[in-house]
Specification:
alpha/beta, 194 residues, 5-stranded mixed sheet, single chain, 7 strands
Length: 194
Amino acid sequence: MVRKSKLLGMFIGSLLIGYSSVSFAYNLDPYGGHWEKGVDYTYSIASSISDEGVDSIVLASDQWDTIRKKKFSLEYSGDRNKQNNPMENINGENEVFKIDMGTSQAPANARWKYSGDIITEGDIILNSSRNLSNSSKPSKTAYHVPSIMVHEFGHIIGLDHSDNKDAVMYVSPAGTVKYQLGKDDINGYNAIDW
């Protein structure tokens, strides 16, 4: 229903304005999931991730905390977890960890657990078999960790992929540096039914 309303709103908006430069390209979690309003999502980071990787992950989560009038908070606990088994990832803890998922898989994935439509746990898995880089200027074949992590934290919050190429929630290729939120990302965040 939300998606139909969004599409109808885009059509009517285009008619009223006379052009389609006003678009709502963000997409919310297809299952309608989100965290409770006012929750502090506290996460740990795997001990197998380098200190530079930790800095990249914290930089990424901090991007979402820059939203004015935020309804949700992402906080690094300062703890390092020993998570290394994907079968153990639903354990009541919010974790960022790294495992080898193979080169045919994405550079990172988000997984979450629901209770009704409320997300109660969210984990992010970095794929160690992909070329990951913490450098501010990664090679064309490397995935920029802050960029992929801000994208994955967006999934943890309750956003799906965006159709807007300027959004961090747009699926970008290797070599892309895009970790600062765009207007579409913020609009998507504000559209979540907190």
